[in-house]
Design brief:
This protein has helices spanning about 5-20, 155-160, and strands spanning about 25, 30, 55-60, 65-70, 75-85, 90-95, 100-105, 115-125, 130-140, 145-155. Helix content is about 15%, strand content about 40%. The longest helix has 18 residues, at about 5-20.
Length: about 160
């Protein structure tokens, strides 16, 4: 390598190193962050942040007791709710804890202030004694899961004869 090439590379390296040293330093030699972001006019000022828009369930009852029923009976119960949030409430899914508990739910959005219902049918075929079944709703709420419960007592023919 010629002397001119070496000198050029040396000067270029020095210029490059000096260009990389753009941060401000404090008195103890530590680099300081620029305050340009703090004065960003696009940043919301205190008190300007809007209220978060979220839907919210408010159920009249979250646990329904169907009482005593005979084995093999089907019971239908209704869970009424209201959207007390400030955005449309959308229930994307509802599932029972077992195949004997079948929910039906509104597929359309529930507007703020509007009411809706979750209908649940419990089939007691093959069941006996105290029952506690749940329905889990998945919605655009926080938290996104809501659990409802159905409870009661299934009386079998043997139990009825003993009473």
């Amino acid at each position: 390598m010629s002397m001119k090439t070496r000198a050029f590379l040396f000067l270029t390296s020095i210029a490059f190193l000096l260009a990389c040293e753009s941060g401000e330093q404090s008195q103890n030699g530590e680099e300081q962050l620029s305050t340009d972001l703090i004065n960003n006019p696009e940043t919301a000022a205190e008190g300007e942040v809007g209220e978060t828009k979220l839907p919210e369930f408010e159920f009249s009852e979250e646990v329904v007791d169907f009482g005593d029923i005979s084995q093999g009976e089907r019971v239908k119960k209704r869970f009424e709710f209201k959207n007390v949030g400030n955005a449309d409430l959308i229930i994307s899914n509802a599932s029972g804890s077992c195949g004997c508990t079948v929910p039906s739910w509104p597929r359309q959005p529930i507007r703020p202030g509007q009411k809706g219902v979750i209908d649940v049918e419990f089939n007691s075929e093959g069941k006996s004694g105290r029952q506690h079944k749940t329905v889990t709703l998945i919605a655009n709420t926080v938290p996104n899961k809501k659990t409802l419960a159905l409870k009661g007592n299934v009386i079998t023919p043997n139990t009825e004869n003993n009473n």
